[in-house]
Structure formats: C-alpha cells, structure tokens
C-alpha cells in the first residue's frame, strides 16, 4: 500500500533522487524503521534478563526476512545483500573501538599474558581440531567437492569468535574477569585468524616445513606488534594534537570530530597496510581513553563517551538485524532443500567441533595460566573455566564474512558443497548466538551464585593484605584519587620479588607520570578548578560510569 | 612510497578485504586524513576572522586535486566522483537537522511570513529572471545546443541557495535577524526548487495555462505542508516514545540512538514520498529540540547537542572538500579548453544574473514585508537588505547536484553545451563561495558597525516598553525561567489589538502547556530535583550554549 501511494505521489513529486534507485530508498527506510523497532522492543524486554538486544535484533531480522519472502513470492528475502565491506569498513570499527575505549584497563592489562595465550595459542589449537575433524568427517560424507584449502578455511571460519556477541552476553561490572578474558581473547583472536586465513589462502600447505611454520609465527608477531603500535600511535597523536592546540577554546565539536576521525583513520590505515584493524582500533581506543579523553572539555567527555557507545550499539543492532535477514537468502537454501538431512548433519557436526575445539584449549591453557600465578585469588577456578569455555562459543558476523569470502564469488555460489558450507555457517551462527547466547546469563547466575561477593574477590578489592598495592595497578582512571600521600609505598625491590606483574605496572605508572603525561596529557593535566561547582559535578557525572 | 610499502606488505598480509577495491581504501584513508587536516588548519586560522572552515576545506580540496592531477599525469583529479546520492542521502540530512535543532526558534517563528515570502515568491522571481536572462543571452552565443528545458533548469540551478554556506558565513548570535531570514529562506527555497525542478522536467512548459500555474502553486503548498507535518510528526513521535518508555532508566545510549534514527527516518520517509527532505528534517529538528530533547537524561542532552553539531560540522567539511576536489575533474574541462573565453564569459553572465535575480526580489519583498510590520524596530532597514541580498548569493553543493542531474548522465557528459554548463556551475560555485563568502564577514562589520547594540535592537531585548510581552514569545528554551509569577500579564484582547503575531505566540504557548506538553513532554516535564547539585549544574552546562 505504502508503495503504491509513493509511486502515485512520484508523478507529482521531485525527480531529484532519480539517479539513486528508488528501491534502495525503500530498503533504507525499512531498515532504519526496524532498527528503531529493535531499540524499543529491546527496551521493553529489558526486564526479562534472559533476553538481550542482539537476539531481539536477530529474531526481528528473521521475521522480516519471512515477511519479505512471502510478499515477494519466495524469490527474495533480504533488503541488503551481506557485504563484507559494509561489515569490515563501517560496522566493526565503532564496536571494537568502543570496547577498547570503555574496557576496564586494570583487568585487561593484569590478565594480558593469559589473554594472549588464549587468543593466539588457543585459536591455533581450535583451528587445528576443527580442521582435522572436518577433514576426517566430511570427506566420508556426500557434500560435494571440497579441497584441503576449504577444510582449513572451515577451521579458520569456526575458530573466529564473535567479540560483539561477547560484549552483549557478559557484563563487565558483574563478571569483570570473565569479560576481560573472553573479550580480550576475541580481540587477539582476530589477529590470529588474519594470519591463519592468509596462510590458508596463500601458502602451499601441502608441504609444511619448519621454515614455513616459523614464518607464520613471525608473521603473527609482526602483525600483533605493528597493529598495536599503529593504534597506540594514532591515539597518542590525537592526544598530542588536542593538548597542544586546545580545540576546546573555540569549539568542543572539533575535539569530538577529531577523536572520531583519528580513531577511524587508525582502523583504515591498518587495513591499508594489511594489518589487523581490530587490534589497531582496540588499542587506539585504550590510549584515547587514557590520554586524549582527559585533554578535552567536560562537555566533550560526556559527548564522546556516549557517542562511541551509541555508535557501537547501533552497529551491533545493525549486524544482528542484517545477519537475521540474510539467513533466509533463498539462493543458498535451494541447493540443500533436496537433502535437508545433510545440512542439519553438517551443522551439528560443526557445532560439536566448535564445542570440542574450544574445550581443548580453555581447560589446558587455564591450567597453564594458573601455574604462572601465585595468588590463589588470581587463579581461574573450574567454574570460571566452564564459563569461559561457554561464553566464547558464539560465532557471528566475522564467521559469516569469512565464509562468504571463501565459499562464494560476489555473494553467489554454484557448487553444492560451497552452498552447504554457507547454509551450515548460517545455521551455526544463528544457533550458537541464540541458544548459547540465551543460556549464558542463566549459566553465569548458576555457576557464580553470589555475583556480588565473587566480583569483589575477582577484582581483588580489600579483604587481602595486599590492598595497599592494588591501587598502583590502576590505570589512573579509577584509583588515582583514592591514593592519598599518607599511603606508605613499599620498596620497589620487595615488590618486585613478591608481585612481579604489579611491579611492572608500578614502573609503567612512574614512566607514565614522568614522560608520557607531560607530553600527551591525561588525567589531571587539564586546568581543573576544584572550587567551580559546574566542573566538579560534571566530572562526577562522567566518572560515575567510567569507574 | 606508502603505496609500494603497502603492496609489499600485501604479500604477507590478509586478503580479507580482497573483495573491496584496494584503491577505495587508499581514497578513504586520504579523505579522512584530509578531513583531520581541515579541522586542524581551520582551528589554526580561527584567529583570522576573514577565513572560515568551508573555504579552508575548498582550498585544501583544490590543492589535493592539483596534486592528484600531477601525480596521475593529468588523467584524474578526484578521489571520489561527485555523487548526488552521497550528498542527498548522507551529508545533507545531518546539516539541515542540526540547523533546525540549534536554530533560535523565537527569531525563526517571528519572521515566519517574511521567510516564506523570500523563500517561495523570491525563488520564483529569481528563477524567472535567471531563466529569462539565460534564454536571451546564451541563445546568441556559440555554446552548443541547449533547449528550453535546459534554460529553465539553469534558472532552477542558480536560484537554489546554499544553506550550508550561510550557516558558516553568518553568525546566529551576532546577526540573529539576518541569520534567521537568510537561512530560513534557504530552507523554504529547497521546497520551492523541488517544485520548480519537477515542473521543468515533467510539465509541458511550452503552453503554460492558468490551470497549470494553479497546479504548480497547489503542488508547492502540498509539498510545504506535508513535509512540515511529516517532520513535526516524526519529532513528536520520538518525544512520545522517549517520554512514555523512559529509556534513560536503563541506558542513555538508547535515547541518543533513537533520536538520531528517528531524525534520519523522517528525512528518508520524505524522500520516499517525494517530499522535501530538507523541510521535513528541519522541522523534525525544531520539534525534537522543543520536546524530545527535554525528555532525555542530562547526559543525553549534552551528547545529542554536541553529536548533532559534530556530525553537521564534519558533513559540511566533507562537502566542501569534495566540491573542491571535484572542481578539477579533467573530463569536463577538456571540452572548454579550446574556448576558455566562452566559459569565462558564461560564468560571468551567470554570476551577473544571480546578482540581479537576487536583488530583484530582496529589495521589493523587504519593502512589502516592512509594510506589514508596524513597529519600527522590526522592519528591515536598507543596510540589512543589502546584507540579506549579499549573504544569499552563495551557490553550493545543491546547485552542483542539480547541474549534474540535468547536464550529465551518471557523471559523464558528451555534449559541448552541457560540459560548458557544468564547468560554469563549478566556476560560479567556487567563485561565489570563496569571494562572496570571504567578503560577507567584513561587509557585516562595515554595514553594522556596532553589532552589539544592533543585535540587542534586533532581538528586541528590553529598552522598548513591550519588554514584558517579549518573554511570551520564547519557545520555552530561553525565557521561561525568567518569567516569575510576579509578572503581570496583559489582557489577551489588548494584546491581540496591539501585536497580533505576538498574540498568536501567546495562544500557542497556552495550547502547548495545556495539551502538547502533558503528552509529549518538553521542558519542565522531566522529574527535576533542584536540590541535587549534579543535576543542576549539568543543566547549567547545557543551558549555557542553548540560550
């Protein structure tokens, strides 16, 4: 009806937008309206704590797909074809940047070694198991022609965790350790999967020599270090520019604009140099929240904080809505409709491999990580290990994008084997996001029955005698103010012997205060008048959510 | 160098972004970096009050175009081809929405009749004169084949004013009357130019009957009213949703997201129904700032205010950078390089017609408008008329977009006449923006030598005996608090006799308070605890810039 009305008006109206296809305007309208619906419905379902916005968006996306499928007479199901570019260039950067910007840096850096262990070694283990399983099982089944490269790609596709979904399912305040481990792993996982995917597509894997293996490992470290440095560099540059020029004098909007543009530039530069944009923009977010954010005006702080969160929120909804709609893309399902059993079987096998592949590294690596730590309260207990295993099972848009890259040409596929892999990927993504995602929250409440006290234990607040050292670990965001001059600091030698990782932090803080902050600003380097009530209370307003 | 380095790394790196063209990533990097450069350089030039950011962006764009032209050996000058879709779908909406959101509503509605007179009747006069001049002058020159429809299109193209440039050149606080007149005219001008452009392209103009003329006038009113209602409706819907659901309870980001999405949806719906998206999103901005903005949390207020301003700021920079780069598009200039004299001549004639066409309606219509007003201080004096004439001379991206629509097919042209019109449009846009734009500020200072006192006079602050009525005109944003209960309100009959337009405002306020605010919220309807220092001072923080 709306469409007829529009075409009727069309005769009267302008033809200004004539060059753009009218159908794309219809799609955009519907898409934006659906995003609004997701927000409203997600809000209404907020009371129901099992539900989250991703799943709402997925369900709405699927329902819309069904409606479009029915109205178009079964020929078409999606408003927009899934595009890797849209995903990697526009939707992913704000999500990962915001995660870096809002992450609790204390937790993240304290668990840095464990995170890298999980993200790098863990992903390799998971990749190996899934590839191996796929080769052994699928070759005996009748699912069309798949080569060795395809099986290895399957391993890479299904070991790419979905950082976005983790953000939605776990709560940073409720389970800080789990959140930082699973999410941090997801970020490192991206760098690893870039290396693995590249290796699968470019190297001749039929003859793996030690030289090739070393090249791959070197490649990983090269990617990891350059990506991190690029992100940190972009963040520091933005801090320096804003501190030096003091944009706020003229307009707070310039500060906000330059922060957004520099963050985006860091991601695009990483993509330009074939680095891991996700790692780059994540570290750019961390550096920006540590330095740049403290150099801008109070109003810019409130604005950037919420703008980044909103952008990330909308991009997440967009992705889930998009994946939900694309799930019913009729072209791929045509190939499997004769043999629905095979598709279900393949999906089930893949889900099983994902479960096994993840278990195969979470438990052994947690054991290893616990060996390195002396303090009982820093170790990962068994229930936490189960949760880490479970919370990282979701596969999302990254898997979809990789699968489309490997098994289709410009979104189309003609081989039966490829079509089955695409539909199975969609099935695994939908199933893992909806079922595993829905169960995670209840599981957290089941395994960590008193989250309040457990959180306190994990985040090592008082109760232990080390309480006077703990503030030194802070990144300056949530602890500096508590640290009055009356606290007696232990000698650095004693600290180094007892708690090596804490000492690193202590020296980082000394270095930060002596060299970094005078150049790049950061907390306390902006003129701050404690007497002014406006400044003070907005400061409070901002701090409330940060800490 | 960077490119070789990148391709070298390419062999090592990921092929994940393989489907997107690598060159588009290079372009985006360069473009984002140039935007950052514009902000920094614009900030450094801020002290020089003759300069503004648009012109900086234009100059940087032209310089980049020259560099690309030289490095590519004269084959290519732009990073991105000018696209109407990009302009009308992504860049224009945030600019116009923000203008509506931040406009001083008091000034705007008080001068509403004058604005509509200028925007509608004035545009028609300007269109007639430019078309007539073009027919008479260009037909005697050797500039290829142009038909009647082309000449009328030229009239429409060059009577479309550049609202974006007006925002940059005039200062709302310094010259509120001029700003609201020229900018308001620009917004109404858009609705008119939609109707005219449509008429030129669809109607058989060789035989204009009174029936056709009435149809056109009816069409204009239909467009104007439906677009306004759609915008106001979208704004009210957002206010109602946010008031009813109170998103802020759970997350302030949802409020921000829904405001942005609803505003964008209103624009896209207008385009869907072939209405004037500019008018729609402008009124949506006005309604949102009057109702919705007051229903959200304090943090959301700060965030939305600065987010909209930042988006608009970046979109403006983007447009000017883009137009600057596109100005050197070599394909169009090839046609005119044999006869550079003709192109210069055509551009000069068009500039002359623009000057005459605008003078032909500003002075007579100002006279008419002055006749309708009784109070001396509300009339537009001659120096102000000169400034209104001058400040609306800029032609910008809208003219470019219309010219591309009329004279090219997908950005390419093969006829000499068409190519000359394109290059002349570019010349007129660049010349008017840079020369007229640069001269406007000095001209304002020359003609209004004591802006402080004049501003006060124009905005009718105290000094006149009507001072106790004036607060009633406020939209509740800048006057309500001053209005203590001790102010004696005059009887409505006396008011109606003495100041009819003020009385309309008074009754609007009564209606607003009695019916609109209880449903849609607005200032004062959010629970507000005056005792809480946090709330109060953030409120102050927000108010500072609003008022």
From TrEMBL, chains A, B:
It holds the Pfam family Na_H_Exchanger. The gene is NHX1. It is a multi-pass membrane protein. Signal peptide: none annotated. This is Sodium/hydrogen exchanger. One of its GO terms (molecular function) is potassium:proton antiporter activity. One of its GO terms (cellular component) is plasma membrane. Keywords: Antiport, Ion transport, Membrane, Potassium, Potassium transport, Sodium, Sodium transport, Transmembrane, Transmembrane helix, Transport. Residues 33-445 form the Cation/H+ exchanger transmembrane domain. The keyword Transmembrane helix applies.
